[in-house]
Amino acid sequence: MRRLILSLTVLLVCSGVAAAQMRIQPSVTKSVAAKTADTPAPAKKKRPPPPPKGPPAREMFGSVMAPAPLEARSIGSYSKGCLAGGISLPINGPDWQVMRLSRNRNWGTPQLIDFLERFASDARALDDWPGLLVGDMSQPRGGPMLTGHTSHQVGLDVDLWLTPMPDRTLTPHERENIVAVSMLKDPFTVDPEKFTTLQVKLIKRAASYPQVARIFVHPAIKKALCEMADQVGEDRSWLAKVRPWWNHYYHFHVRIKCPPGMEGCVNQAPVAGDDGCGGKELDNWFAMLKKSAIWQAQLPVNPDAKPAPKKHPIRLADLPKDCRTVLTAGGNEPLTNEDELPPEAVAAMEAKEAGPPLPRLTQAQLEILLNGGKLGMPLPDRNPKR
């Protein structure tokens, strides 16, 4: 009997302890869960980006001295593409001469070559232009260039100097060292003694061809064209193709359309129908020119002036897939990270700039602008109406 009572007592005590534990367990679990929630999870380490494969595309394409032995084709867009089956413009023609031969940039599609030969002939015969001095076109296989350009990658762009061709054949040394004539007398105004109706007729002639998509000139030259267009005829429709752009003050840049049926060539959107002389476009350009001129004038003395950030170079993987075929066609071995640029590419990089530096503000002009004054800006009231 005594054993039975003892057993029952032990059983009751154990049952109470178990019940207490069951009542306590949820609160303990909540406490642990809360503690776990308050503890931040260890941060995941970001993996560094993989190193780029191969050198920048500008080095890979700039190191190839011969065209791709393929059917002639522009691949991609003007600023991200390449050129298959490129053809070189002869360095001497009846109405043109190629400049900066060391750059090896007198390559294009057959359509660009045909356009240049016809344009040079028409300009001499119809507009009394002595002949074209031809600047950069494209590299033998197009693609990004070692220096100087964002576009000119697909064999459809050409820079043409606004300096008339001499009446003799230039020597190779002269072609490397002659500097084009700037059309500007200050950052905002053309020099009327240098930019004449001869230059206006030349640009108008270039814009008249249906295959021409755009012509780029300095904003001050665009302004002068708007003012002088009536001196070379009543038609002003050609002005729509002429667009203002940075640094085109000693040459104009002609861009032709993708040839019909050329697969993989990407056109720009067509230009608007107006002549680009009215509205706010030129006013906005001159506002940007003002900021740029002030920055340039202050750069030597202003320690806070910062250069523009550098863009990441285009890699081969950023270009259309067919550009790899263009690069390797004919057994060409693409440049690797361990390779040095060939001497020809180094010479192209070291070639003298084709034009003089942009004119800078004098100290007196700078003070005028900083005090709210104007130097030939914006368009005058006599700007032709649309």
Primary descriptors:
single chain; 386 residues; alpha+beta; Muramoyl-pentapeptide Carboxypeptidase, domain 2; four-stranded mixed beta sheet; three-stranded mixed beta sheet; disordered N terminus; disordered C terminus
Describe what you observe in this structure:
- This protein is an alpha+beta fold and 386 residues long.
- It has a single domain, classed as Muramoyl-pentapeptide Carboxypeptidase, domain 2 (2-Layer Sandwich).
- It is 33% helix and 12% strand.
- The chain has 10 helices and 13 strands.
- It has helices at residues 2-38, 57-62, 110-127, 172-177, 197-207, 219-228, 281-298, 322-328, 343-349, 363-370; strands at residues 73-77, 80-84, 87-88, 92-93, 96-98, 107-108, 132-134, 157-161, 184-186, 189-190, 212-217, 242-244, 251-256.
- It has a 4-stranded mixed beta sheet with strand order 8-13-11-12. A 3-stranded mixed beta sheet has the order 4-5-7, with no helix packed on it.
- The radius of gyration is 33 Å and the shape is globular.
- The model is unreliable at 1-37 and 377-386 (pLDDT under 50).
